């Protein structure tokens, strides 16, 4: 059955919808469920779908679009990076706090920036471990100061700590520790 026809009539003639707004090819609808409830659920999934600017999520570094308007660099020095993050509804969770995945993504970006200030440019880095501690929540429209600093760097690995603090109170909300491994460069 066509989704638009189902929306107009509200009667499921068939148990399969061929052009559902949900990402699956077909959606099975039980005849026992109220059609209005099905419409409410479908509208909910439409409402939480990602912004159209993020449609190409398979491209390299596509998640940066989510954070580029929220993050601003404050200072960059050797082994230290400090930036400001404003919590907006786009990166908030159901409880109106900064989403845990957003915290981890921002922590990874800041940690990578810290390592890049001390490691030579020809070395490729990859994230080996990222540990997160969620101490308290940062509510929507609050501003966070994110400070990253290199704890240790060596020939094959670097360790970075990242602290998230609420700007007004300087209360620590999230802590992160990242370990980056340096890829070996062949000398052929």
Automatic annotation (TrEMBL):
Belongs to the thioesterase PaaI family. Residues 1-25 are annotated as: Disordered. GO terms for molecular function: fatty acyl-CoA hydrolase activity. Residues 1-10 have a biased composition (Basic and acidic residues). InterPro entries: ACOT13 (IPR039298), HotDog_dom_sf (IPR029069), Thioestr_dom (IPR006683). Residues 15-25 have a biased composition (Polar residues). Transmembrane segments: none annotated. This is Thioesterase family protein. One of its GO terms (cellular component) is peroxisome. Residues 98-172 form the Thioesterase domain. It comes from Arabidopsis lyrata subsp. lyrata (Lyre-leaved rock-cress). It holds the Pfam family 4HBT. SUPFAM superfamilies: Thioesterase/thiol ester dehydrase-isomerase.
